[in-house]
Amino acid sequence: MKRAAILSAIIAVGIGSALVAQGAALPPPEPIQKVGDNLYKIFGGGGNTTVFVRQDGVVLVDTKLGNNGATILAEVRKITDKPVVLIINTHSHGDHTGSNGFFTSADPTVDVVMQENAAKQAAKPAFGAPALANITYSDRMSIGKGADRIDLYSFGAAHTNGDSFVVFPAEKALAIGDVMAWDMGAVIDTGAGGSALAMPDTLDKAVATLSGIDKVIEGHGKVDDWATFLRYVGYTHKIRDVAKAAVAANKNYVQAYEEFAKDPAMAPYTGEQVMKGLEYGGTPKSRTLNNLFIAMKELRGEPVPLTMGAPPPP
Asked: What's the mean pLDDT in 58-67?
């Protein structure tokens, strides 16, 4: 299926159900990639799956779309024979939770952890009915000790209102889910509590709280350094600032983009190339247009439609 058809389906029925329905059209998982001493990433087939090998077994952060469990396990078996003992989902969407059930069905002792808002969202039929969380948290939770420790944080609304920031202190690494993907503007799922206006404050809390991180694993795409993440935080502030000025001047989102694009520091977010392995959501430019459109809708108190490919004409 062509990308345009995928985008049309997503806009019509929402992120959760559309990505589940269109799973066969997305790029398949690629070979496992080493990220740290005991940390790995599997790209494709939905969101990145982060693999953390602990003394007691394997932790998976996100399990892609459905029907990818066997492939994920085969990639894990390339690096270890230890069992999968824990799944952490960064948020509720089906391209990150879809293969939970493969692992929990094979071993009912496998725990699934989500932020409490994400757990409620994942229980809705539109999100593909993944194996649901049996462990939830509100603001912060730690799992394990020493080199095996994992710290979970929820800082507020961003991509959704149930986003988890998953930190591996011994690896100096953060799995950030779709709060940051392909180093483009995030898809803001306002139906799941996401907010372009709240995102800068949410990320500011992350910057103020987290330390010692030099690797940021995106929800889709690559592994960034901390400086790239900080640039992205600046981008979210720029979106909000430009949107506020545009609303005050009674401009539309295209006029707002023209002002945004004048800032040379924002050049990475104005490109028109399609990223490698991109499943949905267009180019850096279209994501920026989307984010401005959504922020301005929020500021005006207007309903915000799900916007992923391109916003409606102004």
From this structure: 96
Q: Could you give phi then psi for residue 87, rounded to 5 degrees?
A: -120, 135
The residue type at 289: L
Helices (H) and strands (E) counted in the chain, each on its own, are 10, 13
Q: In what order do the strands lie in the sheet with 33-34?
A: 33-34, 39-42, 49-53, 58-61, 84-88, 111-115, 135-137
Tokens representing 140 are 């912060």
Mean pLDDT of the chain: 90
248 — phi, psi (to 5°)? -60, -30
H or E element in which residue 5 lies? helix 3-13
Would you say the pTM of this structure is higher than 0.90?
Answer: yes
> Which helix (DSSP H) or strand (DSSP E) does residue 286 occupy?
helix 284-300
The predicted-structure confidence for 154-168, as pLDDT tens digits, reads as follows 999 999 999 999 999
Distance CA 143, CA 153 (A): 12
Which phi-psi region, left, alpha or beta, contains residue 306 (left: φ > 0; alpha: ψ -120 to 50)?
Answer: beta
Q: How many CB atoms lie within 10 A of CB 225?
A: 12
Angle between helix axes 199-209 and 226-248 (nearest 10 degrees) is 150
Statement: residue 185 has pLDDT above 90: yes
pLDDT attached to residue 99? 94
Mean pLDDT of 93-103: 93
Q: Alpha carbon 292 to chain centroid distance?
A: 19
Query: What distance in Å separates the CA atoms of residue 209 and residue 108, rounded to the nearest whole number?
Result: 34
